[in-house]
Design brief:
Elements (H helix, E strand, L loop, with lengths): L1 E5 L3 H13 L3 E5 L3 H11 L2 E3 L11 E4 L6 H12 L3 E4 L6 H8 L4 E5 L9 E6 L6 H12 L2 E5 L4 H11 L1 H18 L4 H20 L5 H8 L5 H11 L2 H23 L3
Parallel strand pairs: 1-2, 1-4, 2-3, 4-5, 5-6, 7-8
Antiparallel strand pairs: 6-7
Helix pairs in contact: 3-4, 6-11, 7-8
The protein binds NADPH dihydro-nicotinamide-adenine-dinucleotide phosphate and (2S)-3,4-dihydro-2H-pyrrole-2-carboxylic acid.
Keywords: Amino-acid biosynthesis, Cytoplasm, NADP, Oxidoreductase, Proline biosynthesis
Main location: cytoplasm
Catalytic activity: L-proline + NAD(+) = (S)-1-pyrroline-5-carboxylate + NADH + 2 H(+); L-proline + NADP(+) = (S)-1-pyrroline-5-carboxylate + NADPH + 2 H(+)
Amino acid sequence: MQITFIGGGNMAAAIIGGLVREGGHQIRVIERTEARCAQLRSEYGVEASTAQPEAFGPDEVVVLAVKPQQLKEVCVELAPRLQGALTVSIAAGVRVAALSRWLGSERIVRVMPNTPAMVGKGISGVYAPPGVSVADAASAADVMRAVGEVVALAEEGGIDDITCVSGSGPAYVFYFMEAMIAAAKQAGFDPMTARKLVVGTFEGAVALAAATDTEVGTLRANVTSKGGTTERAIARFDAEGVREAIVAGAMDCRDRSMEMGETLSRD
Ligand SMILES: NC(=O)C1=CN([C@@H]2O[C@H](COP(=O)(O)OP(=O)(O)OC[C@H]3O[C@@H](n4cnc5c(N)ncnc54)[C@H](OP(=O)(O)O)[C@@H]3O)[C@@H](O)[C@H]2O)C=CC1
Ligand SMILES: O=C(O)[C@@H]1CCC=N1
């Protein structure tokens, strides 16, 4: 597939990394600075330039991967060059109606990816509005399937929902890992060993959860011996409202996605 990324920052690089690992794609990136282009060329072996091409081919997939606040300006520049190419936006918050207005195109699919795409372990939500062909929806899903799993979303609001779980979710996990690394250091481990212990613990726990249908709560209970050590840790988490804080944070994230949808999709 011929895929052009407009914006080659953190999320685009994660998808590009995954696509390059998979192989068989022609990838081009448009970035703002020559320095970033040079970095993308050397890290991923992709084509990169600071100027948008004069025109895109009808079979090309154009991935919008700039910050939501940068999107309108990018779309306005892109509109006369698109020539009907399929556009896939990975931006949080900005709605299809606004993208369609700015691009003068209805061939638009929204995707909410996540950064584990870099190692082929992404999970993405894909929303294709009514009117987008089955083939275009499949092309957008294929790009994301190359870097992980895909969940089809029936409504555009599903993008807000999935953002607060899998889109932003890796940051919640890294936050928890940071806290556990701090704990490991406090317990006396050097930084390298602390990181190794924590990453290994996450890797093992995730592999265990993925390998079974057993409820995650049961897996947790299996570690928690009555009157033992884990029970004491979980009691402190419960007393401090850790679980409630995580749920509330995720709901705030979803609210922010909806709020961005209101403000950034207005004009
Ligand atoms: N990071 C994540 O985990 C996820 C991000 N997303 C979405 O992905 C999008 C990108 O996010 P992220 O990668 O984190 O952001 P970044 O800031 O890392 O990447 C955006 C890139 O686009 C460049 N850029 C800005 N304007 C232009 C332009 N006119 N032409 C070409 N390139 C341009 C920026 O350059 P400069 O820095 O010089 O401005 C920057 O390198 C956002 O819309 C976000 O909502 C979705 C899911 C997860
Ligand atoms: O924080 C953000 O706005 C983006 C969208 C999902 C993950 N990162």
